[in-house]
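User: My instructor asked us to take a sequence, write out its structure as tokens, and then describe one feature of it. I'm not sure where to start. Here is the sequence I was given:
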Amino acid sequence: MTSPRSNYVMAAGFEIHVTEWGEPGRPALVMWHGLARTGRDFDEAASALSDTYFVICPDTLGRGLSAWARRPEIDYSYRSFGDIAEALLDHYGIGETRWVGTSMGGLIGITLAADRMKDRIARLVVNDIGPDIPAAGAGRIAAYVGSPPVFDSVAELEAWLRKNYAPFGDNTEAFWRRMTDTSVRRTDDGRVTVHYDPQIASQFTHHKADLDVWDKYDAVTAPTLLLRGMASDVLAAATAVEMTRRGPKPRLVTIDGCGHAPTLANEAQIGLLRTFLAG
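Assistant: Let's start with the prediction itself. The structure tokens for your sequence are:
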């Protein structure tokens, strides 16, 4: 496993934390995480793929080590995240890139590949998300994101993460410990909570159109791979099938043993990415 590099980049007026892997001269690969997660979720895949690509894994605004929004009702939106993504590519001198997006990161990739980065995203991986999200799945996510728990110990937080993210599937002990280490922050009174701004949940109320993007999806022309967790409550099976018939008409691969969302952390899933991205 190669070692990551931690960098802080001013992008669209915000300090954004980026985990970098591989040599900058290689073809670029952006890996963008889900709603309440961080770029460190991709460590296994980014490390493996860094033998071929220069991989950047940003922490989205309001998450991980990146800055928080100044105007949450405006800044926590796909328009703002797109501004940041473009600024990051410009900072690194990246013209064309491949894009792997899990959940929210997949929708950001769709909106960008449909419009302002249509000529920059050469290949797109959409991991367990679709142009519309079932109400039950959206409600489950909104409920815990908007009311993050606070614990007396990191051990309690880790237990909560393992339970709350059980749909991630059967991952290694090292995976869960790293997820804990990269998800924890201390509160002012010394207790522990998750490492994001609770106001990121404002996207569900102020930017509902961000979650219904069939028009954008139909405009995507980049070769696309669609991944779905077998038990996903966020990407319905019928929606996944409809996606194969519209827009970029991706190949659909269903991942056994998980729900929302496949972590892309094991050899088989990394192999899927490697084969598709090289096409």
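For the description part of your assignment, you could build on this observation: The two ends are 24 Å apart (CA to CA). Try explaining in your own words what that tells you about the chain.
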